[in-house]
Amino acid sequence: AGVAAGHPFNKDINEGSPLGMAQMQGNYANGERQSASARYLRPVLDRPNLRVITGALVKRVIIEGNRATGIEYLQGGRTETIHVSREVILSGGVVNSPQILQLSGIGDPADIRPHGITVQHELPGVGRNLRDHIAVGVKQRLTKPYSLLATLKPLAMVKALGQYLLFRSGPTAVGGLEAWAHLKSRPELEYPDLQIYTVPLMYNDHGRDVIKEEGFQAVMNGSKPRSVGTIRIRSSDPTIAPDIDPRYFSEPDDLRVLRDGIRLTREIFAQKPYDDFRGSEYAPGAGVTSDADLDAYIRANANTLYHPIGTCKMGSDSMAVVDSSLRVRGIDGLRVVDASIMPDITSGNTNFPAMMIAEKAADMILGKSTS
Fold first, then answer.
1. What is the pTM of this model?
2. What is the rounded distance in angstroms from the CA atom of residue 228 to the CA atom of residue 193?
């Protein structure tokens, strides 16, 4: 249908330009997702120089002078301490890495001092530059039972579980995202700014609320959002979640991109390949066509795709937190290795880029690469 609407077919979105319609690719094999835990951590758990501590929460990085010398963490209601001889490597993620730095006295003094924490090192970029892919869906009814709705009945779920456990086959052995596209919201753009994927089911609230009708949906996000948010601690207590303010749509063009994406999706759904089973539009609804009405729908229904980045960004400007070797600027013996170091968001999913960052960081830590 996308090709019928005039979009090119792309046989491999990971080779060269991602522009066009494509089959979904994913990091799974033999019916199992190839997670970082499964592929990197699990095979080396028996190494003598590796100790995995679970059920623990980092309180702060210990700073002596201008050097990180260890960490404090909570476990079982007690504070424990680990001292290091070389480096502390912080991989808390886009929310927790800046939170831990701020709890350690590293960041903007205005974020730290109100909570009674001594400022160890002023780095105003800690917790800034939060960027994320925000998505919204076009939900389309079907006149034939082609969705996954029937597989959610109790007996069908038991059957699917049996197929997976015995044969690594059936509906649970593959991802539910099949058709994929990277498109341009405006033809004059050099690079796609929309990512669209289809799900053979209609739902709300990240799948927690399944719509009990035959249908499917196209979920789209702007690939290069301009809105920028913040992460700030709310307390010196590490068990209290920080304030997360993504400031979605603070840049109006992010709203425009999704609005254009809805219209592009509707054009694809209107093509002949859907004629035999296309029903009415469930949401936003056929009557929602004006810019104002589409914007209202987007604001009411858009949600995160869980691709946040940037809160400990790499660079050399005044707001950079880490240098090109991922070392925290102004503090010896401390690196950040996770998606928070990305200066800008990738045009696609962030899972593989985060693994690439870790691979590169491993080489730098081992002295195989300088930057």
1. 0.93
2. 17
What does the alpha-carbon distance between residue 145 and residue 215 come to, in Å, rounded to a whole number?
8
Query: Looking at 7, 133, 182, 307, which residue is catalytic?
Result: 307
**Nearby residues of 148 by Cβ (< 8 Å), 6 or more positions away:** 171, 176, 200, 201
- The length of the chain in residues reads 371
Distance between CA atoms of residues 60 and 72, nearest Å: 6
Placement of tokens 């799974």 in the chain: 28
pLDDT computed for residue 28 by the predictor = 79
- Token pair of 297 as six digits: 């729908």
pLDDT at position 14: 83
CATH number of 20-35+132-235+243-304: 3.30.560.10
Task: Give the whole-number percent of the chain exceeding pLDDT 90.
Answer: 87
CATH number given to 53-130+309-365? 3.50.50.60
Whole-number Cα distances in Å, 70 to 61, 108, 318: 6, 22, 26
DSSP 181: E
Query: Would you report the helix, strand and coil content of the chain in percent, each value rounded to 5?
Result: 25, 25, 45
Q: What type of residue is 134?
A: I
Q: What is the DSSP letter of 110?
A: H
Please confirm, yes or no, whether 307 is among the known catalytic residues: yes
> Which residues, given as ranges, of the chain have pLDDT below 50?
none
Cβ(139)–Cβ(201) below 8 Å: no
Instruction: Give the pLDDT confidence of 287-318 residue by residue, as tens digits.
Output: 999 999 999 999 999 999 999 999 999 999 99
- For the chain, the structural domain boundaries read 20-35+132-235+243-304, 53-130+309-365
The beta-strand segments (E) located in 94-172 are 106-107, 121-122, 134-142
Q: Give the containing element (helix H, strand E) for 259.
A: helix 252-269
